[in-house]
Amino acid sequence: AGAEMxxxxxxxxxxxRFQESLVCYQEGIDFLLxxxxxxxxxxxxxxxxxxxxxxxxxxxxxxxxxxxxxxxxKYHKQIRIEENATGFGYEKLFxxxxxxxxxxxxxxxxxxxxxxxxxxxxxxLVKGPCKVKTIHLLTSYDEGSGRSQQMTGLxxxxxxxxxxxxxxxxxFSSSLHDREIRFNNGWMIKIGRGLDYxxxxxxxxxxxxxxxxxxxxxETTVDVFHTKHTKKM
Length: 233
Description:
Blueprint: H1 2-14, H2 18-38, H3 42-71, E1 75-81, H4 90-94, E2 104-108, H5 115-127, E3 134-139, H6 146-162, E4 167-172, E5 180-183, E6 187-191, E7 220-226
Parallel strand pairs: 2-3, 3-4
Antiparallel strand pairs: 1-7, 2-5, 5-6, 6-7
């Protein structure tokens, strides 16, 4: 398993998919270290240690490269979510960017209509490890009779968040088109479909109704950037 993981890391490395390759290098190194502990053959141990040292050096170089891209505001990672793919719950998508210093979040999405999806996103922020104190939501009004339901739902979410010491600021725009989520640690995530990239479950008793990791997705693209400064609304 360790050899396969490292092989994958090298492939991703050669394809310049550095963030993904770094994760694979780290996991592969952990596997190989376990193998070294279980190996009694000294010659094999020596070879494993040499390889581990090489991979650790490369992983450290990639870390420095990623950090420089972040400092220069040039970091960009793209994730392609295929039609009906599963395993892309909000935690999977956002967790690595929600560091402990995140205290403020901006959500720009003209079509916040599936309010339970937005609520699930807020629940993720409340759970941490970040220490979110303020969530800024910029969206558009629902049309017709849906507007009243939208307003009522958002106000209830706002009230519930306040019980956890989180302020939800809600603004509306009739000209908003772009969708993006920003954290005050510099990370910015753009999702083609916004937060509503999940397909509706067939019923409240369908697998994936509660656990978004098990819910099929619509096809969409996720772009992740790191910027020196996170703009405010």
